[in-house]
Structure formats: C-alpha cells, structure tokens
C-alpha cells in the first residue's frame, strides 16, 4: 500500500505533466496562428522640427508565405481617426485625421518585403506622442509602439576671435539647451552663452570659450537639452579651427514581438507562478 508521501509525490508529478501539456498546447496554438513577428528597431525616435522623419515598423515571417494581402494601420494615442491605413493593396484614408493629411505615407513598393514604416513630412510639435503600428497578414498579427519626440537641433560652427577666444554658434535648438566646454583632458572650462529666440520659439545659441585657445589643441563643446545632445569637437591649428559633431538622442531601442507570442509568454509565466505557489 502506497504511503501518503508517495501519493502526494505522484499527484505532483501528474500535475506537472498536465501543466506541461497545457503549456505546449498554448505555444502550439500561438505559433500556428502567428508564425511571424511585428518589430521596430527604434521604439523611441526623435524628429527634427520642420524636417521629415521615419517611424520604423517591420513585419517578419518565418518560413514560406505570401505577403501580398497585408493590412497596416497607424494610430496615435489620444487622437481620433487614423494616421494612415493601408488595406486591400491601397491606401484607405477616409478616416484619416486632418493633422496628417498629405503628410503621412507608407513605402508601398516595399510593403511586400515586410516594410510597414511610416514616413512623416515636416514634423511639428503637435506630432509628438505614441504611435501604434498594427499589421495583419497571413500568419502574422501584431502591434508595436513608437514614441516620437520632437526637437530642433543643429551642429555649431566655430570661429576664433581676435582676442584668442573660441566661439560656437548653433542656429536651431528646441527646447532651449545648456552649453559646456571642456579640454582634451576632460576639464571643464570657463565659458559664457547667449540665447535668442525667433518668432516660432527656436533658439539660436552663441557660446564663447573665454580662455585663449592653444594651437594644436582640441576643445569639446556640448550642447544638450532633455531630448538631444550634440558633442562638437573643435581642433585649432594655424589660427584656423575645424569641427566635427555627432548627436546622441535620448531613448533606448528594443524589439517587440507579435501579440500572440507575447500572450503565450505571459501565460507561461502565470502557469509557472502557480506551480511555485502550489
């Protein structure tokens, strides 16, 4: 006759096998419904005010399959109507919000290759927000979010003044930035900055490195706000200065899987939690 301990142990083994079968069934259903993913390489994107921007969205399918019959819908949180909709191999813009009329486009020649990205012309401050790209195709169904932030930014130009100081001038910044200077060794240097705004609130920045600059030295001017950071390096040689600038944008890049796979993963964690609690 089996002991109570053996009965409990056998019951636990049976429960684990049963739950494992359930997990396999859930995953099988998920992958049978959706054998592809909808992804974005840039879930956080910065648009340059007044310029064009691309909100990245791609759909990928494992194995063979047709990508001809694709439905793509772009929505913006808090906004009525669609940003852009593509269905039945054509744009469906009857319900498009007026804010995006003649400004939003898809790369239609590349949709069959998995490109659902949104091209947005002449970015405005009101375009800032969270956009949702939803794709439905054979064995593919999913949605990804892209957070668009809007700023104005430009690289500075450098000039050596007659008194030996070095001036950096950047024409387009929004929001208003802060400016710091440093030497090759990273030491902060004494400087002063002036800001002037045009009629639409774009800031022009003029910053002066006060200490006389030295020949063959490189100085770093950092212009930054909470969205964009410009790192500009100015090298002085023969009373001339050459500069190079690179930009760093706030936000991280992650990939988001399709909804069916996410659902399966959530259910898997739920079942495992139940086993631990039990």
Whole-number total of structural domains: 3
Determine the fraction of residues in helical runs and give it as a percent range.
10-25%
Counted by DSSP, the helix tally is 2
**Briefly, what CATH class of the largest domain?**
Mainly Beta
The CATH architecture assignment of the largest domain turns out to be Sandwich
What is the ordering of alpha helices and beta strands?
HEEEEEEEEEEEEEEEEEEEH
- Supply Rg: 27 Å
| Termini Cα gap | 26 Å
Going by CATH, what is the homologous superfamily of the largest domain?
Immunoglobulins
How many beta-strand elements? 19
Described by the principal axes of the CA atoms, the overall outline is extended
Structure class: alpha+beta
User: Average pLDDT, to the nearest integer?
Assistant: 83
The major sheet is characterized as: 6 strands, mixed
Low-pLDDT residue spans = 30-34, 252-278
For the largest sheet, list the strands in their spatial order.
Answer: 2-11-10-5-6-7
